[in-house]
Structures are given as C-alpha cells and as structure tokens.
Give the backbone structure.
Amino acid sequence: MRYLSAKDIHSFFSMRNAIDADAEALSLYSSGRADIPLRTNINIPEYNGQSLYMPGYVSGSAPALGVKIVSVYPDNINQKLPSVPATMITLDAQTGIVNAILDGTYLTQLRTGAVQGAATELLANENSKLALLIGTGGQGMAQLEAMLTVRSLDKVYISDLDMNRAQKFCETATHKFSKLFSTQFEPVSNPNAIVPEVDIITSVTTSKRPTFDGTLVKKGVHVNGVGAYTPEMCEIPVTLLKQADHIVFDTLDGVMAEAGDIIQSLKQGAISKQDISGELGQVINHKISGRTSDAEITFFKTVGTAALDAIVADRIVKKAEKENIGIEL
Ligand SMILES: NC(=O)c1ccc[n+]([C@@H]2O[C@H](COP(=O)([O-])OP(=O)(O)OC[C@H]3O[C@@H](n4cnc5c(N)ncnc54)[C@H](O)[C@@H]3O)[C@@H](O)[C@H]2O)c1
C-alpha cells in the first residue's frame, strides 16, 4: 500500500494530467460505466462531528475503485486540527485490496479545478484572453490553475467579498505561476465593472446570491459555476442562464438534485428542462454538441461526483507506482 501526501501528488501529477483524467471520468460516467452509490453520512453528536463516505467504481479498460472520507468537525480548530479532514482510499478493482491512501483535500481541489478545466477547454472560445475568477477560498487556486492550463490568458481578474484575500491571492498566484504563464493577475472589488470585457467567468463561492450581473456579459462568454451545492445556494444569475446557448453539467442527476443555481431557475420558470443540453461527458463522447460559434454563450455547472475522485486518484496511484513516489507501507 502507498501513502501519498498533498506534496507528493503535487510533485508529479500536473493539472494537465488531472484534466485528462477528469475528462475520461466524465466520458465513462456518461456512458453508464460508473456505479456511484448515495453518500453515507454518520453523525457523531458527542463531538459535534459528521463523517461522510463517498464511494465510487468506474469500469473500463483501467477500472477505478475507491472511497473518499470527508468529515466535518468545526471544533477541531480549537486543537489546531483541520475542521474538514479528508482522505481518499483506493482499492485494486481486480482484487478488492486497498492499494493507496491519499490526501483527500488536495485531491478535491485538483479534481474540482480540473473538471472546470475540462469544461473550459471544450466550451470556451479558443482565443479567450481575459478571465474573471470570483472566490478565493480553498478551491480558488486550483480553479485558476485549470483556466491557465487550457487557455493562453493575458489577464485574470480576481474578485472576492474579502478584498484583502483577493489581493493576497493575486500575490500568491503571481509567485506561483509567473515562471509558467505570462498571465497578469489583478484584484477587482466590483466584478461587474469588468464582466462586459471577459471571455471566461468562473465562480467558486459559498454565496446564496448571484456573484455578478448576468445582463452585462459579452457574446461568446463561457461561464463556470463551481460553488453552489445545496438548493439554497446560488451564485449564477438567472439572466445568464436565460441567455446561455448551451447549459452543460458534470452529472445531470447531481446538479438537478443539489445545485441551487439550477433548481431555483427551474422553479421560477426562468429556464426549462429543455434548455439543459446534457452532460460534459456527452459532449466528450460526441453525443451532444458543444459550442458551435464564437458568439454562443456556454455555461458549465459542477457539483462533483465520486467518479472524478475514483478515476483521478487511480491515475495518481498508477503514476506514483511507476515513478516510485510516496511512502510504501
Ligand atoms: N463542484 C465541486 O465539485 C466542489 C468541490 C469542492 C467545493 N465546492 C464548493 O465550492 C465552494 C467554494 O469552496 P471553498 O473551499 O473555496 O470555500 P471557502 O469558504 O474556502 O471560500 C469561499 C470564498 O467565496 C467568497 N465569497 C462568498 N460569497 C461571495 C460573493 N457573493 N462574491 C464574491 N465572493 C464570495 C468568500 O469570501 C470566500 O473567500 C463551496 O461552496 C464548496 O462547497 C464544490
């Protein structure tokens, strides 16, 4: 069995690798090759905790089997421990034997950034030069890296309710990416001031209200909604969804059950089920079309699926075995 820390994974598995793995995972998911049981939640009231178990199996020429365990223990912070510890366990699909334990927090950041990267690569205009990232929390940096990986961007505007965080995020991004990409990063306090200019918008927040004005977007924009994962949450404006020529999800079942952006818009009658194109995996499998002209507006929504965790983790483990990275137990 192998143990892989966040640092180990970062050292040999790139965002490019993760985007390819996510695209493969969604392609297999949309072909009916994934078995994703409902998440199991266990309450631990004595310690104000909750433990969530997300198993998944994806079949195919390189099958992937695993379970991600994410626990929510708000009081851990008093002991200087992570309040949302996360671990991924992978198993050899042929024998059922556990073959690796991975840092689940980093895996989530990587696969969530990468799924947006896969969507942006397929749906955004090729010559996109300006982008806007809204939300600079735990997921923000991987979201930025994914956009930089799939498009040659001149500038990414960075916005957050907390401007200090946005400012610091830009400094970190410059430090992290200046040798790899020639992109500039600029904090903006009012995202709507630059929404009319940008080719790509990614929102990754915990917001319950839209994070930008959808009436201001330019023709041809591609928008990613990554944050909202409960019916009460909503970061994408209805006005954007109404204009979108293609509305694409990571998984139809997941988004329709969880994403407030979509659930609320359907409830209000602002969009109908017929306006939803389908899954990104179907675009990858050429079952539905993606962007067909520069002027079309495209929208991608992700709530995540254990299929992404299983495939990305499996590909990390296979590569680690080849390159002998991590600790062998
Ligand atoms: N789609 C997926 O697979 C997936 C995976 C992981 C996390 N998520 C979700 O993504 C969201 C962000 O995760 P995180 O770990 O970065 O959260 P976080 O709490 O670390 O950061 C959220 C950031 O959003 C900012 N924010 C909130 N409302 C805003 C608004 N109206 N305008 C601008 N900024 C605003 C906050 O100031 C904060 O900086 C969460 O809702 C999380 O559950 C989705």
Summary: The longest strand covers residues 49-58.
